[in-house]
Amino acid sequence: MPGPDGWDDDADATDVVRDVPFRPMSVSEMLDGAIAGIRRRPRTTLGLSVAISTVIQVTSSVAAYFFVGDIARDEVTPAVLMESFGAQATLTVLGLVLSAYGILLMSGLVAPILGRELVGLPIAPRQAWRDARPRLGRLAVTAAAVMGISLGALVLPILPFFTLIAVGAHPAFGVLAGLVGFPLGIGLMVWLYILFVQAVPLVVLERRTVAGALRRAVTLSKGRWFRTCGTLLLALLVTVFMGFFALRIPFLFVQLIFFGDSSGDGATMGALAVDTLGRIVSWSVVLPFDAGVIALLYMDRRMRREGFDLDLRTRGRSAAAVTAGARDDGEGFVSLWRTGLEPARPETGAGAGAQR
Predict the structure, then answer these.
(1) Could you list the residue range(s) of the whole structural domain that residue 245 is in?
(2) Contact 273, 251 (CB under 8 A)
(3) Does the residue 174 lie in any domain?
(4) How many C-beta atoms lie closer than 10 Å to residue 91's C-beta?
(5) Diameter of the chain by CA atoms?
(6) Is position 240 within any domain?
(7) Which segments of 133-224 does DSSP mark as H helices, in order?
(8) What residues contact 328, with CB distance under 8 A and at least 6 apart?
(9) C-beta atoms surrounding 104 within 10 Å
(10) How big is the chain by its Cα radius of gyration, in Å?
(11) Is residue 113 part of a domain?
(12) Per residue in 201-259, pLDDT tens?
């Protein structure tokens, strides 16, 4: 790697230009690195993102049409408004859950791209797919497990609130249960999500089982929970601005101009189609950004907690030299990330315990 952050500049060193420094990264470097990953590999990252976003947004739109369509009547009464509000809230929660799951899936798919970029290995066409394909099933299950644990932590503390309402208990008990349950549930959901989120990229790069990936994520998160939370919060602010405002504005104008004064099934379908297209475009851009931040958080923790960058420097003069002679199926690259799964080699143990 050229410069003070890299390996020795010799004949064996790779000539790949990096936008992600091979050292512990600051928050701004991780955010910049996620954007650079999209810019340097647009066809790969955006192709995966468009596919995931299309499935998520079309599913949300179909649910919205059939779930809210019967409620969208000309007559406006309090009962209709409350029913419509409940339906819209349900659809909003469904859309957020699907989008969060898509971000987790994407983080596992872009992890090999950013991982190769980080160590300076070339990225051949469809290489990211070949790296991630053997673990697609575990990737999907791990992402579902992270979402399930987080949502379960949200639901359990607020169950007493809904139970008291259902049985017609005194309103004071319901208010008390809500005041305690909702903040507690939200806090537990955020805490567990931050604690386990790194399991998704590592299940692909380290070839772990689902349970092993969750345990390893807890180990990597020790002592750095607040830093991880702050980084993801900044990424969320960028996502909200770009995904809900900047990239959606042109499509909102199209809806207002062509379907704002129209009524009927044709106008509803047209407006919904434009809205769906706008959400696909906006989320196709923000998905790889959020996913890249999650993947880089995992890589940063490997370097800070375990000295991953120092460990690779002890193996050879470049990542290409380390993986020389490896098979062409991507296992040479994966072997750089695997830890604790194979007998230790004499030349690779020097930097394994480095703490920074």
Answers:
(1) 27-348
(2) no
(3) yes
(4) 16
(5) 78
(6) yes
(7) 136-166, 171-196, 199-205, 210-221
(8) none
(9) 26
(10) 23
(11) yes
(12) 999 998 889 999 999 999 998 888 999 999 999 998 888 887 777 777 787 777 777 76
